[in-house]
Amino acid sequence: MKITVVGLGKIGLPLAVQFASKGHQVWGADVNHQLVETVNSGIEPFPGEAHLAELLAEVVSAGRLQATTGTAEAVAASDAVVVVVPLFVDAEGVPDFRAMESATREIARGLRPGTLVAYETTLPVGTTRERWKPLLEEISGLVEGSDFHLVFSPERVLTGRVFADLRKYPKLIGGLSPAGAQRAQEFYEAVLDFDERPDLVRPNGVWDLGSAEAAEMAKLAETTYRDVNIGLANQFGRFAASRGIDIYQVIEASNSQPYSHIHRPGIAVGGHCIPIYPRLYLHTDPDATVVRAARAANVEMPAYTVGLAEAAYGDLSGAKVLVLGASYRGGVKETAFSGVFPTVEALRARGAHVCVDDPMFSAQELSDLGFEPYDAGTPVDVAILQADHASYREFGPADLPGVKVVVDGRRALDPSRFQEVTFLVVGKG
After folding, report:
1. Tens digits of per-residue pLDDT, 235-262?
2. Cα(266)–Cα(21) distance, integer angstroms
3. Which of 110, 118, 168, 332 is 20 to 30 A from residue 410's alpha carbon, by CA?
């Protein structure tokens, strides 16, 4: 097949490489000229994605993957188009469709009869049918369901392990017509491989959910569940800490019963997915009070964690406070909706002198993010662990000279290393 992947970000590029590795001819379309040049040189444009560097070099050198800024031209030569352009939301959770709409217009300009178009970007329920179908039809002059086929098929992978997740999880699809769903099933079976999953109710592979709306909701449901679960864990943790209870023992005990799956509390919920997708769900279901309450509970956690530090140390005005980790989670060089931002903001509001450390970012990169980089060996009064990078797990007082209070926001540090320091864990009394 000839395939165009629109959007060469941290999901789109591995997808393009996956398709090309199955022997198909792939174009990767993106508006970023520098990114296109980097991909065409066979060089990995961002670090941390397992196996991407070697697979990218292989498919580019074999001529099976070519990046381009000409989306319409690539689409015109393709049998299938996969769209992984980011959908942004504002501070209130209102979707900003401008980037996706611009990409869709370019796709429509190149759309030819017989083409399959699959949106993989997470969307509010109804978006594929109500927004993208009319726009594609209007600009292309073609009719969906007869001239071309449109489906929604959510990406379900985690940055850093995309290729493994593509094999591990069922590929969900939802068409606007039975014929479109059939085309999508044939397409994804030709570009993906699936691991054996005896734990699933049906064999691992392509699962047709019957409609685009069902597929859209499935992605929102699985991610919103995690946000709600974490919100509940955070509320449990705050209450337990106030009563001197170790919430982690409580969770372990509760989860020993097969109907309990409580997540762990923590300083923040970050990344492109969990903080955002509940807001996309709320966009079309504003009466979802449970979802709204959980999102609010999670948003409060950075300030709550700073409050723990303040209660243990005293007035933070003028105190030297180190935030460990700019990334939204350990092992990933990504700050999208990271807890570092509200944590630093809450510390600065209390008059603290704040610096940030992260082994995945250079001092200049931290400065560009608006932080004062930490100069290793400089004395600090308070340290707050925000991202659980592996290198932090071996930290002790020697790595934090002069530290008097340590707040572990991820339960990643070894308490035995901090015998002479006031050591707190979020959710542990």
Report:
1. 999 999 999 999 999 999 999 999 999 9
2. 39
3. 168
HEC assignment per residue over 332-368: CCCCCCCCHHHHHHHHHHCCCEEEEECCCCCHHHHHH
Tens of pLDDT, residue by residue over 15-40, are 999 999 999 999 999 999 999 999 99
According to the model, what pLDDT value does residue 272 have? 82
Catalytic pick among 133, 219, 320, 428: 219
Q: Name the token pair of 186.
A: 């044939």
- Estimate to the nearest angstrom the gap between the alpha carbon of 411 and the chain centroid: 21
What does the DSSP assignment read for 153-182? ------TT-HHHHHHHS-EEEEESSHHHHH
Q: How far apart are CA 386 and CA 427, in angstroms?
A: 14
User: Is 171 a known active-site residue?
Assistant: no
Evaluate if residue 89 carries a pLDDT over 90.
no
State yes or no: is 273 an active-site residue.
yes
How distant, in Å, are the alpha carbons of 23, 110, 121, 124, 179 from that of 176? 28, 21, 17, 16, 8
Return d(Cα 51, Cα 27) in angstroms, integer: 20
Catalytic hit among 10, 133, 273, 428: 273
